[in-house]
Amino acid sequence: MIRDIAGRQNHSVKLARKLQKRKHRRERGLLVGEGMDLLRAACEARADVRDVLVRRDLVRELPKEIVARAGADQIAGAPAVDIGVCDAETLDYASSLGGAADVVFMCAEPGWSLGDVPLDDGFTLFLDGVGDPGNVGTIVRSALAFGGKAVVCAPGTADPYGPKALRAGMGAQFLLPVVTEVAAADLLARITSLVGRGQGQPEIWVADPYEGDDVRGVEATTGAIVVLGAERSGPGSEWDGARRLTIPQERFDSLNVAMAGTILAYELSRGLHGRPSGK
Fold first, then answer.
1. Domains within the chain, CATH numbers bracketed
2. pTM of the entire structure?
3. What is the chain written as a DSSP string?
4. Residue 277's pLDDT is what?
């Protein structure tokens, strides 16, 4: 259905506002994203888009598949989409990003679990207390770009499916398994279980800004899990005995966690199965 929305009391507008809070996203299994580019990325990844709020002058720029599904009961197994045409003031009210929104959309949150992650193959990033949603979204985007298998988030990490993280990820959350609310103990138990069933033992490395093995020389033949902690306090005590991995810097610790995660992902993509001679 394509319909006009007259003001702030519309159900879709109120839902978009509610979904800005993590509690309501978890209760409904929905997320809210903003921006035409992010909506296109969601469509390309075949995300389950449910509602779209768009400025009147931008209706023609909506992805064709969204417009085709509007008003239809079902197309090729996909539920219909409700498109609400708004004025700029109403859309800005529904937005969490400070105005100038062109489109706000709601879709089902991907339902990944730790069991979906192949921990013994490739590399996985474990975010332990990374509190800035922009950093979390950037790390997800970098992991996808460099062939990571998943990003796993501990309690206390910013929600990777929040509006700011989605904007920073630019659609990566729709393409890469991103698992939330996984405690370090649960991850370690999962590794123990996999090894007990005869699967490979993944390497566990903790990113450390001050000491550890140079990431440029890292090689591994099985999977690897790299733990990234909060910039000030680092990861939890569960990782105190784990091998440290560092990015050499010339003068001082000048990399934030998103920059460090990007460099680590790049180097891991080169070194996980052995580096070519001379590289």
1. 2-108 (3.30.1330.30), 114-271 (3.40.1280.10)
2. 0.91
3. -EEE--STTSHHHHHHHHTTSHHHHHHHTEEEEESHHHHHHHHHTT--EEEEEEEGGGGGGS-HHHHHHBT-SEETTEEPBEEEEE-HHHHHHH-SSSS--SEEEEEEPP---GGGS-TTSSEEEEEES---HHHHHHHHHHHHHTT-SEEEE-TTSPPTTSHHHHHHHTTGGGTS-EE-S--HHHHHHHHHHHHHTT----EEEEE-SSSSEEGGG---SS-EEEEEEBTTTBS-GGGTTSEEEE---SSS----HHHHHHHHHHHHHHHTT-PPTT-
4. 43
